[in-house]
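Thread: Newbie trying to understand structure tokens

Hi all, I'm a second-year student working on a class project, and my supervisor (Dr. K.) asked me to get a predicted structure for one chain before our next meeting. I've only ever worked with sequences, so writing a 3D structure as a token string is new to me. If someone could post the tokens and maybe explain what I'm looking at, I'd be very grateful. Here's the chain:
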Amino acid sequence: MEAKKGLPIIAITGSAGKTTTKAFVGSILSKKWNVFESKDYWNTTEHTKKHKEEINDSHQAVVLEYGMAYPGIITNHCSIIQPNISIVTNIGLAHVGNFDGDVRGVAKAKSELIHGMDQQGLLILNKDDDNSRYLETQQFKGKMLTVGIKSDADYRAYDLQYKDIGMSFKMKLHGQEIELYIPILGEHHVYNALNAVAVADYLGFSPLDIQAGLNFKKPPRRLTIYNLRDDITVIDDTVHSHPQGVRAAIDVLTNIAKKRKVAIIGQMRELGVLREEEYRKVGEYIYKVGIDEFITYGFRTDEMSNAAIEMGMDPSKVHHFINKDALHALLDKLIQPHDTILVKGASKTNMFETVKYLDQTLKEE
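---
Reply by user tm_fold:
Sure, no problem. This is what the structure looks like when written as tokens:
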């Protein structure tokens, strides 16, 4: 399927942030247009075939997520529906185990989006993401725009601030400074918002449309906040888990915690030969940012706990479980008023059960 003249077909890939970026883009564009937006996590080639049948003449824009666990998949996506606007959110370690542990293999597979899209279209890249330099942009003839916070990108956010349940930041659009707000926590989500700002601005949406559209309905279980009794807060981030996302979630915990910071971290999948090193780095990071209680759950996640202890964390503050009931029994004893608790793990590890347990046992009376 090729774009009918003028129909923006926006495809999003990347190791993290695809679904949230898609939700931001869809939310802004639907302020003025009838938008076809794929369902959250509907990002396989089978889904793309279904989408091709569902898109019709009433749609004024199409927003899709292109997932990839192996080479050749994104080429296949593009042969079913060819995008004319593409976003690569970042290149991280999701699925790196399928590429012999080499992030350049991931970048090469993600580059299939650049090769498979309309060669005169728009490509949006993350200027702050080191691994994005491995993307194959040399032959691309279209327009390239960058987003960033740390570097001088085309769309750059600054003055980031954590608010109650979201982030505010400033940026310049057409020479005018504007302040924007997103109802989801974490610096990493500001990048997702910037991708959507770049698309919307390119398509002629006004700063007011953009401001309104960023106040989106966020995907479920993405840094969802539960305010429970005794001023206890639970952060539910239990959909995906890879090293970048784990660090980002820990950053949210350290930024919003009022008193003690409790991190419950489950397995990260598909890291292959990098697992040991990446698990160790998480444990070291936990110690570095001053987490008060560190709980790991699942096979081999004690590699994280052991790394935290080796760095100097008090062993009595580090706990490892392979049994959820035993983990929940510890929480009954451990949790105190004013605690902030992060629960993070891949959906296959069912860490959401721990969120539900905390919600049920600590509900406001």
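A couple of things are worth pointing out once you decode it. The longest helix spans residues 187-202. The longest strand covers residues 167-173. Feel free to ask follow-ups in this thread.
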